[in-house]
Amino acid sequence: MLDAKTIETIKSTVPVLEVHGQTITKQFYQMMFKNHPELLNIFNHANQRQGKQPAALANAVYAAAAHIDRLEEILPVVKDIAQKHRALGIMPEHYPIVGENLLAAIKTVLGDAATDEIIDAWAKAYGVIADVFIGVEAEMYKDAEQQKGGWRGWRKFVVDRKVKESDVITSFYLKPEDGGDIASYKPGQYITVRVKPEGQEFTHLRHYSLSTSPGHDYYRISVKREDAVNGNPAGVVSTYLHEKINEGGILDISAPAGNFVLDQTKEIPVVLLSGGVGLTPMVSMLETLLEDGSNRDIVYIHAARCGSYHAMKEHIDKLTREHQGQLRSYHVYESPAEGESCDKTGYIDLPWLKTVADPSADFYFCGPLPFMRAINRALKEWGVPEERIHFEFFGPADSL
Ligand code: HEM
């Protein structure tokens, strides 16, 4: 436990961090990658470029510092981050590297204002915060390894089938190369893929939501090809998977993770909403709901640019026919091609949502940020309480 003086120093420097937080974390990453270039094998380079990861880390450090004397209050947030850390293979020995470089960055940016007293206090506080993460992650590594079919770290999987789902989305069915069992998962969870495309200096890691119900002898991920747009380069991993990885190809995979999961203990209606490739966790949840024998009334709404971008349409249509009376599904096209039919043109909005969904339902949604913001705003305006609103971001968590 930290002494009262250290706690006071930490709390009084939080406002300073808030002003310089982004500068400090950017400086921190530059220093850390210069001193430890091997960490570029773990961090997402695209997130770095877009400044997303520095922002996420900065926010987490403020939150932790502001709660330094009651860290248990931020434990749920720690657990979300720790799930990602576990999936990426972050180890206890990585923590001192982050700590040393963070302190050096604080010194560099704050200059004389960073007195020895302040630096000592932050060193102690970082140690306490790091120990919380290391402890939570140790439990997660143990759970991942000890469950039936589970494993620690990376395991080789063979692409058993590769199926094109739309112009931009392709599914990969993955079976373990060793022929053993695979760990089960909860609908909504993701697996992490590690690849090293030819010509790339570092390995690249990406999380992909599992896109079927659990209980098969394979994992399925459905990946959107991220082409170069608006000055942003094409996605290294998605392009590699689409273009270079074929049936028989091998991928390194870490065990399922993630806290965005379907609550199967509930009996109230469920509304699932997805935008674009955000359909992956939703299809997993939908299949699970239909298979688990519950009688919950289900509405599934999918938004896509147009028909050629609409993945898994036939599958969803078939499920809707087979489960008439329990499942209703709708699709919304931003700009349908000529002759394409859809249930709504443009975007999902509250007046339309009110005609198809029930506000007493549990709502789950996933998709691009503008989609998520629009849905969240609509649900709030409709009066849906927070505890029935569940969502997940692609990439580093952001605020709606
Ligand atoms: C992701 C916080 C330590 C590597 C994240 C995220 C946060 C965070 C908030 C974003 C989670 C999200 O995607 O929603 C922290 C804090 C740490 C810490 C507060 C220390 C107490 C570490 C260490 C490493 C590490 C020691 C390894 C050297 C990563 C990586 C990601 C990540 C690779 C994924 C993001 C990306 O690749 O863009 N962390 N982290 N973190 N963290 Fe940490």
UniProtKB/TrEMBL annotation:
InterPro entries xrefs: Cbr1-like_FAD-bd_dom, FAD-bd_FR_type, Flavoprot_Pyr_Nucl_cyt_Rdtase, FNR_nucleotide-bd, Globin, Globin-like_sf, Globin/Proto, Hmp
HAMAP family: Hmp
Name of the protein: Flavohemoprotein
Annotated site (Influences the redox potential of the prosthetic heme and FAD groups): K84, E392
Annotated Gene3D superfamilies: Globins, Nucleotide-binding domain of ferredoxin-NADP reductase (FNR) module, Translation factors
Lineage, highest ranks first: Bacteria, Bacillati, Bacillota, Bacilli, Bacillales
Sequence ranges assigned to domain Globin in this UniProt record: 1-138
Organism: Paenibacillus haidiansis
EC numbers: 1.14.12.17
Cofactor(s) recorded in Swiss-Prot or TrEMBL: heme b; FAD
Function noted in UniProt: Is involved in NO detoxification in an aerobic process, termed nitric oxide dioxygenase (NOD) reaction that utilizes O(2) and NAD(P)H to convert NO to nitrate, which protects the bacterium from various noxious nitrogen compounds. Therefore, plays a central role in the inducible response to nitrosative stress.
Keywords of this entry: Detoxification, FAD, Flavoprotein, Heme, Iron, Metal-binding, NAD, NADP, Oxidoreductase, Oxygen transport, Transport
Residues reported to bind NADP(+): G276, V277, G278, L279, T280, P281
UniProt-annotated stretches for the region Reductase: 149-400
Catalytic activity, as annotated: 2 nitric oxide + NADPH + 2 O2 = 2 nitrate + NADP(+) + H(+); 2 nitric oxide + NADH + 2 O2 = 2 nitrate + NAD(+) + H(+)
PROSITE patterns: FAD_FR, GLOBIN
Source organism superkingdom: Bacteria
Similarity field: Belongs to the globin family. Two-domain flavohemoproteins subfamily.
Record-annotated site: Involved in heme-bound ligand stabilization and O-O bond activation: Y29
